[in-house]
Amino acid sequence: MSGVWVFKNGVIRLVENPESNQGTRRKVLVHTPTNEVITSYGDLDRMLTSLGWERYYDDPDLLQFHKRSTVHLISLPKNFGRFKSMHMYDIVVKNRNLFEVKDM
């Protein structure tokens, strides 16, 4: 994973650098039990709903999912084209052993 770590307003995050990623593979989110690559929010919505996640419709700029039995909230950009590896890893962390991020 390449990029620059940025510390701003008390939060540290990795800013991926597309110029340095030329020639490398892109990351994809994979549903581990079925080995299915998530290619759209429709696929992801179906998977998360089957795992007990509920969709929130409060913010028109985000897709949000909440699981009642936890305090977890998954927030994703409305446009699937802006779905980055940091969003994928958020899903992986909140759904242990069910998703993984792979190089494609």
Automatic annotation (TrEMBL):
GO BP terms, alphabetized: regulation of flower development
Family of the protein in this entry: Belongs to the FPF1 family.
Protein name per Swiss-Prot or TrEMBL: Flowering-promoting factor 1-like protein
Source organism per UniProt: Actinidia chinensis var. chinensis (Chinese soft-hair kiwi)
